[in-house]
Amino acid sequence: MEGRRSSVVGRQKETGFFYPRLTTDDSRLFLDPIFKPKSIALIGASRRESAVGHAVFKNVLLGSYQGIIYPVNSSADSVLGVRCYKSILDIPDPVDLAVLVVPSESAVSVFQECIKKGVRGAVVISAGFKEVGAEGAAREKELARLATKHRIPLVGPNCLGVINTAANVKLNASFGRDMPASGRIAFVSQSGALCTSVLDYAKGANIGFSKFISMGNKAQVTELELLEYLGEDKETDVILMYLEDLAHPRALIDAARHISGEEAHLKPILAIKSGRTAAGARAASSHTGSLAGSDEVYTAIFAQGGILRVDSVDELFDYAKAFSVRRFPKSGRIAIVTNAGGPGIMATDACVRHGLTMAELSDATRAELKKHLPSTASLSNPVDVIGDAQHDRYQAALKTVLRDQHVDSVLVILTPQAMTDIEEIARTIGTISSKSSKPILACFMGIVDVSGGVKILEQWNVPHYRFPESASRALGALARYAAWVKRPRTVKKEFFVNRKSVQSIFKSALTEGRKYLSPEETFGVLGAYGFTTLPMEVCSAPAQAGEAAKKIGAPVALKIYSPDIIHKIDVGGIRLNICSPGQAQKEAREMLEEVRRKSPASRILGVVVQKMAKKGQEVILGLKRDAQFGPMLMFGLGGTYVEIMKDVTFRIAPIRELGAHNMIHSIRSYPILEGVRGQRPADLAKLEECLERLSQLAVECPEIAELDINPLMAYEKGKGCVVVDARILLGDQNIR
Amino acid sequence: MEGRRSSVVGRQKETGFFYPRLTTDDSRLFLDPIFKPKSIALIGASRRESAVGHAVFKNVLLGSYQGIIYPVNSSADSVLGVRCYKSILDIPDPVDLAVLVVPSESAVSVFQECIKKGVRGAVVISAGFKEVGAEGAAREKELARLATKHRIPLVGPNCLGVINTAANVKLNASFGRDMPASGRIAFVSQSGALCTSVLDYAKGANIGFSKFISMGNKAQVTELELLEYLGEDKETDVILMYLEDLAHPRALIDAARHISGEEAHLKPILAIKSGRTAAGARAASSHTGSLAGSDEVYTAIFAQGGILRVDSVDELFDYAKAFSVRRFPKSGRIAIVTNAGGPGIMATDACVRHGLTMAELSDATRAELKKHLPSTASLSNPVDVIGDAQHDRYQAALKTVLRDQHVDSVLVILTPQAMTDIEEIARTIGTISSKSSKPILACFMGIVDVSGGVKILEQWNVPHYRFPESASRALGALARYAAWVKRPRTVKKEFFVNRKSVQSIFKSALTEGRKYLSPEETFGVLGAYGFTTLPMEVCSAPAQAGEAAKKIGAPVALKIYSPDIIHKIDVGGIRLNICSPGQAQKEAREMLEEVRRKSPASRILGVVVQKMAKKGQEVILGLKRDAQFGPMLMFGLGGTYVEIMKDVTFRIAPIRELGAHNMIHSIRSYPILEGVRGQRPADLAKLEECLERLSQLAVECPEIAELDINPLMAYEKGKGCVVVDARILLGDQNIR
Question: Which residue among B315, B343, B418 sits closest to A197, beta carbon to beta carbon?
Answer without folding.
Answer: B343
